[in-house]
Structures are given as C-alpha cells and as structure tokens.
Amino acid sequence: MSFPNVDDVRARIEAVEPYDIRYVLECAYLFCGRISELVSESCPGDKKTVPRGPTGKDVGVDTFEFGPLKVEVAIFNIKTAKRQGKPRLIALPLDKKYESWTEEILDYYNECGSKPLFPFTRQRAWQHSKEAFEGLTYPIDRYIVTKKSELEKITVNAHNRAFRLHALRHLRTTELITVYGFDGIDLSIYGGWTLRSMLGVGSSMERYAHLQWQKYFPKLLRR
Questions:
Q1: Which burial class, exposed, middle or buried, applies to 55 when counting CB atoms under 10 A from its CB (0-12, 13-18, 19+)?
Q2: CA dist., res. 91 & res. 83, Å (int)
Q3: 10: left (phi over 0), alpha (psi -120 to 50) or beta
Q4: Distance of CA 150 to the CA centre of its chain
Q5: Which of 49, 64, 100, 103 has the fewest CB within 10 Å, making it most exposed?
Q6: What pTM was estimated for this model as a whole?
Q7: 85-119, pLDDT tens digit by residue?
C-alpha cells in the first residue's frame, strides 16, 4: 500500500473547476492544512468544527537570504485547528523553480483583500475533492479504537481509504519528510502539531515554534 503519485494529485487539482475550489485544494496541499483552516462557513448542524479560514490580508512577502542566494518568500498566516486557532506561518518560495503554485495563490489572496478566501463550507470542498480524486486511495496504518461507553478496545487493521481532503495533509507530510528532509521540529512548525506529539517530550520552544519558518525554509529550496 502506498500514496498516490504527487504529480498525479497535483495535475488533478490543476484540472479542477471552479477556480475557488482549485485554490482551496492547492492551499490544503501546500499548507499541509485541515480544510477547517481554510473555509469560512460552517456546515448546517455542525457544532464541533470551527471554520478558521483566512482573508486576503493573512499573507506577507519577505526576502530570505541563504548565503549568496536571495529568495522572495510568501508567508501565509494560518489559524491552526485543534489548537484553538493558534497561528502558524507557512513560508513558500515565490520562484516557480521551487514551487509552481505559490505565486498564483498569493495573487488570489491579494484579489480577495479583506474578504474571506473561501466563503463556503467544508462539505462543498469535500464533494469536489471526491470528484477530483476518484479512484485514488491512500494507506492507513493499523490502529486501536477505544469505545468510551463500553471501555472496549477494537483493532482496525491496516487498509486503504478513499483519497479525499484530509489525505492531502498526509501526502504533503510524507513529501516534506521524504523529499525535503523535514524533521519533527520542522513538521511541528509547518503543520501545526505540538512538539510533544512530534518529539514525545515537552519543550519551552512550544510557545515560539509556530513563528520560526526560517528553521524549515532552506529545505524547501532543495529542488
């Protein structure tokens, strides 16, 4: 069992219409994000998921100097789901030889101004992802589920699951590790996981980790 090819997934995203759905899928992938971190409207009756989608103002541009190299950087401010909206900074190179989607996403942010980027529900995004990724699956490792009401533990064997929105987060995480050499601290900063969950220990760095995009950014210049 293995993940779909990254180039295939990206090609499917680029073929999506309408354009706002294409951009939300691009952002979900590049930001290693949960869909609730991107959309701005709640599904009817959903009281558990808080939409924390950005506006066009949640981005800035900076220059990163790496020895003799100077690279223009777009820095996207994302409110992390499951951490009460704690901000994290996703820094991506604007040069297309490093990342082909950054510039168009930045342009879309600028077009939106103070308005939400994606003023719709996660259900709408999910439905389009179902169509875009039809036939694709991704692997789920064996895990144990505990039923609170019965205090019973159930083992779910490894299996393949239909590739949908959340699979983009898994695919991007895999790419960041295998292609770009991200470590646990890099993933904590980039993807919004706690350092405890990534490294197994607490750290005084926790309160600052979400700000340190300079820690991981050089690794995104490897290709």
A1: middle
A2: 20
A3: alpha
A4: 35
A5: 100
A6: 0.87
A7: 889 999 999 999 999 999 999 999 999 999 999 99
Question: Is residue 60 pLDDT above 80, yes or no?
Answer: yes
pLDDT tens for residues 151-190? 678 888 888 899 999 999 999 999 999 999 999 889 989 9
Rounded distance between C-alpha atoms, residue 92 and residue 195, angstroms: 22
DSSP states along 110-168: HHHTTSBSB-S-HHHHHHHHHHHTTT-EEEE--EEEEETTTTEEEEE--EEEE--HHHH
Query: Closest Cα to residue 127, out of 3, 207, 35?
Result: 35
- Which residue pairs from 183-191 have beta carbons closer than 8 angstroms and sit at least 24 positions apart in sequence? 185/209, 185/215, 186/215, 186/216, 186/219, 189/88, 189/89, 189/213, 189/215, 189/216, 190/32, 190/88, 190/90, 190/216, 191/32, 191/88
